[in-house]
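**User:**
If convenient, please work through this fold.
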Amino acid sequence: MQALTSVVLGAFVLYAGSWYFGAVEGNFALLLFLATVVTGIYWLAERFYFLPQRQAAAAALEAHDLHRRAELDKLGIKQVDGDIAQARQKLLMQPWWLDWTAGLFPVIIAVFFLRSFLFEPFKIPSGSMIPTLLVGDLILVNKFTYGLRLPVLNTKITEGTPPKRGDVMVFRYPPKPSLDYIKRVVGLPGDKVAYLNKRLTINGNPVETNGVPEFLDTDTMRYFKQYEETLGDKKHRFLNDDDRPAFVAGADNFEGRNGCSYTVEGVTCTVPEGHYFMMGDNRDNSLDSRYWGFVPEKNIVGKAFFVWMNLGNIKRIGSFD
């Protein structure tokens, strides 16, 4: 078992190392699931096989010691050297290969269920959601609001509440589902979304927008025009860059593109059933549905709602819309 466990642990380390150095495309959900299954098997084997074996060996040692003392007592020998306490403790001790598998199972399964069905942490890698979310924000994503999903497969098992306009949502990037993206829900199934001359219109109704003081991007040391927008019942802020044209350049040939119209003014799309139109709050610096298309319902991961840490600015901690 020691050799087998060494091979199993080595495989996990090799996979994690290859992922870290970019040699393979990693899947943390799958890795965590496999770790839960493997350590669970070891935990069951420990509880119902290995531990009883060690306990039986310790009991046999105690019985042998009692028998030996009884025999010596018959011979009138009352003082007997030797204490089996240390030997008994050594027999009951979990070997390293069980300590690193069965011993980790309670922690791993707790993380697995927490991450799969309640809350999952993410780190914001880019500025596409500025000013709502900044690079380096560590956020929590609610995994049950939109319905519980099976880990790895992402198959929906409960209905939950459908996404609403204005929600900040994490989803699997349609062109490459192994990647997670975060954007704001702008268009619901059946909506006609137009973003023309940097103004958003939904089903022919201009979205309420008000100018607010400019935003200073401390990374680029530039000021950007900032606006407050109302999507559904939520207000949020977004940025515009006057140096960027309204024209959407380089849009992919995505599924449902025949429902979109691209002009020099921007884009107009009708959202297919079971899909969502997503945009970043940093409107002119966001690779979103304007470029790669709609997010199918099956790609939804969860609703982002809380910044739990930003190592560069702890004042960022708190909820957001």
Observations:
- The longest strand covers residues 222-231.
